[in-house]
Amino acid sequence: MNRVFYGTFISHAKNELKNLDYLLIRATNGFLPEKSIDEAIYYLKKTQEHLTQAKKELQTSNTVKVCQNSLQP
């Protein structure tokens, strides 16, 4: 079950990076107004949040596995 949540968070992070990629292409061509900079920062923060959540899910999943393995005879 945790793998599903882990994968979902990674997927969300990838989508945020796609949004950021578009802004960076515009910046390269000289079309990056101040509002777009704020938008790029927003997408970076969202990406960080999703990856942090994925890491927590992965750690929780690993902890559960260790506990389950230690309980088996």
TrEMBL record:
Q: Identify the species of origin.
A: viral metagenome
Protein name stated in the entry:
HEPN domain-containing protein
Q: Name the lineage.
A: unclassified sequences, metagenomes, organismal metagenomes
